[in-house]
Design goal:
The protein is an alpha+beta fold. It is 14% helix and 36% strand. Strand 12 and strand 13 form a beta hairpin.
Length: 346
C-alpha cells in the first residue's frame, strides 16, 4: 500500500451540465478544495469563473475557443499537463470524462481522474461520485482504482477510448428540452445541432463480418441491428451463467466483449425487445492480446463512444482491450485491492 498526495488539481466543467448543476458543483468543489492548489482553464470548460482563488490557465495555443468542443477540451487538458496537474476532476457526464481521458493520454502526463456526476448519462466507471459526496466526509479518504478501456481504431488508426461502451449506430443519448432523447449523430457531427431521431437498425450490409485475430467468425446474426463493445469487470459476471459466455470473463485478464443484437438496445424510451418478447444476441470475449475487426458497415454504422458520436472515416473498425488503463478516484474507506490509496494534503 502506498499513500499518494496529489499536489495540483485541475478541474473541467462540462458546458452542457446546466447552469444550476455547474454552480452547485463548483461551490461544493470550492469548499472541498479550500486551500489546495487548484486550476481551471480559460474557455468553455472553466465553469462560472467565480472562484477567484483558483488559478486560471490559458489553453495550449493561447486560444480560448479554438476550433470546436473536442479541440478546446484537448487544449485545456494539455495546459493542465504543462502546469503539472496530478488530479483531473471532470464535472459532467460519461462523455466529458471519456474525451478528457483520451486527451490526458495524448498529453503524455498521467493524472488520476475524479468524475463528478452532472451529465445526461452518469454510468461510470470514471464518473462515480455525486455532488453530495463533496459535502460529507466520504471524499476525505479516497483510493484510486485502475480502470480498463476499449481502444477504438478505424483502418488501424486510433480514434477513441471507450470506458463504458462503444455502440455502432446512428443515434446517441442526449438531453433536449430537459429530457433524455435519441439524437442524430449526423446532425451533431455535421451541423452541431441536437435533432431527435429514430435509431436505424440498418447498420450492417450483406458483406458484414467480424474477424478475431485475422479469422472470420461464423455468425447467426448476419446483419445485426446494433453492435456494442464493452470492457468488463470480471467480478460482475462471476458465477452468473445467465450471462452466457460473458461469465467466463471472471477467469480472464483485461476481458472485454463484443455483442451483436437483433434489435436496438441503446435508445431513449422503454424497450420492448427482451421484455415483452425475446431478444437475440451473440457475444464474443476478447482480451489484451486479441484484435477484433468489423467490416461491411453501412453509412448508419457510426461510432458512439461513451455517448460521444464519432464519424467513421474508414471501412474497418477495430477493437482492442486495454486493462488498468487509467487511475480513477473512488470514495469511501474500503481498501480496493490493486489500487493506490491517497489523501488530499492539508
Amino acid at each position: 500500500m502506498s499513500v499518494w498526495n496529489p499536489g495540483k488539481i485541475a478541474v473541467l466543467f462540462g458546458p452542457s451540465s446546466g447552469k444550476g448543476a455547474t454552480v452547485e458543483s463548483e461551490e461544493a468543489l470550492a469548499s472541498w478544495l479550500k486551500g489546495r492548489d487548484t486550476a481551471v482553464c480559460a474557455g468553455r470548460f472553466a465553469g462560472t469563473g467565480a472562484q477567484a482563488l483558483w488559478a486560471r490557465l490559458k489553453p495550449t495555443g493561447g486560444v480560448e475557443r479554438a476550433q470546436g468542443y473536442v479541440e478546446d477540451l484537448r487544449s485545456s487538458v494539455a495546459a493542465f499537463a504543462a502546469w503539472g496537474a496530478d488530479l483531473l476532476v471532470c464535472v459532467g457526464g460519461d462523455g466529458l470524462s471519456s474525451y478528457a481521458a483520451d486527451a490526458m493520454v495524448a498529453s503524455g502526463r498521467r493524472m488520476a481522474m475524479l468524475g463528478i456526476a452532472a451529465g445526461t448519462i452518469n454510468v461510470g466507471p470514471i464518473v462515480s461520485i455525486g455532488i453530495e459526496a463533496l459535502r460529507d466526509e466520504s471524499l476525505d479518504f479516497c483510493s484510486t482504482e485502475p480502470v480498463g478501456a476499449i481502444e477504438v481504431l478505424v483502418d488501424d488508426r486510433h480514434l477513441a477510448y471507450g470506458f463504458n461502451d462503444v455502440v455502432i449506430g446512428d443515434t446517441f443519448l442526449g438531453t433536449i428540452d430537459e429530457r433524455v432523447a435519441s439524437l442524430s449523430a449526423q446532425a451533431l457531427l455535421e451541423r452541431g445541432e441536437k435533432v431527435e431521431a429514430r435509431p436505424s437498425a440498418d447498420i450492417a450490409s450483406q458483406d458484414f463480418g467480424v474477424w478475431k485475430n485475422g479469422k472470420k467468425l461464423d455468425s447467426i446474426l448476419r446483419q445485426p441491428a446494433q453492435i456494442i463493445a464493452s470492457a468488463l469487470k470480471p467480478r460482475e459476471f462471476f458465477a452468473r451463467a445467465v450471462a452466457g459466455p460473458l461469465c467466463n470473463a471472471a477467469y480472464m485478464r483485461g476481458s472485454a466483449a463484443l455483442a451483436l443484437f437483433d434489435s436496438v438496445i441503446v435508445a431513449a424510451g422503454s424497450p420492448s425487445q427482451g421484455i415483452e418478447n425475446f431478444s437475440a444476441s451473440e457475444q464474443i470475449l476478447f482480451g489484451p492480446e486479441d484484435a477484433i475487426a468489423l467490416r461491411g458497415l453501412t453509412d448508419a454504422g457510426q461510432l458512439i463512444v461513451d455517448g460521444n458520436p464519432f464519424a467513421r472515416m474508414g471501412e474497418t473498425v477495430g477493437f482492442r482491450s486495454v486493462p488498468g488503463f487509467i487511475d480513477v478516484v473512488k470514495s469511501g474507506h474500503r481498501w480496493l485491492g490493486g489500487s493506490r490509496e491517497w489523501t488530499l494534503p492539508e
